[in-house]
């Protein structure tokens, strides 16, 4: 089945989002505010990408150790009854390793190499 892979990585100042169609085609990169303004923001984003592209989204939400101050309301809001729909699936995975060397990717957007690795290693399997 053809799917979009999406990685969501909350951080101390922002939430990074990356979507790929297969292992080589990046279709979306975004730097959003740390916490969404509405509890339906993440489900709506996943649904919108699925509807836009016409294929389901398989997403991974990076779960980092919150003792470093990277806590986010995404975890609390998603604990209710969220995770699967006909348009998307969302799994919680250990946070991507950001300690590897970084390379500039898409000027102005910053680093997304860790999300690319997360998508290929966790979501694509």
Low-confidence stretches: 100-107
- In DSSP terms (H or I, runs of 4 or more residues), the helix count works out at 3
User: Could you give the order of strands across the largest sheet?
Assistant: 3-2-1-4-5
Mean pLDDT: 77
- Sheet/helix structural class: alpha/beta
How far apart, in Å, are the first and last alpha carbons? Answer: 12 Å
Count of separate structural domains = 1
Please tag this protein with its features:
125 residues; Nucleotidyltransferase, domain 5; five-stranded mixed sheet; 3 helices; 5 strands; 30% strand
Structure overview:
Helix content is 24%, strand content 30%. Mean pLDDT is 77; it is low at 100-107. It has helices spanning 41-53, 73-78, 113-123, and strands at 4-10, 14-21, 25-33, 57-63, 88-94. The protein has three helices and five strands, in the order βββαβαβα. It has one domain (4-123): Nucleotidyltransferase, domain 5 (2-Layer Sandwich), CATH 3.30.420. It has a five-stranded mixed sheet with strand order 3-2-1-4-5, with helices on both faces. It has 125 residues and is α/β, with parallel strands linked by helices.
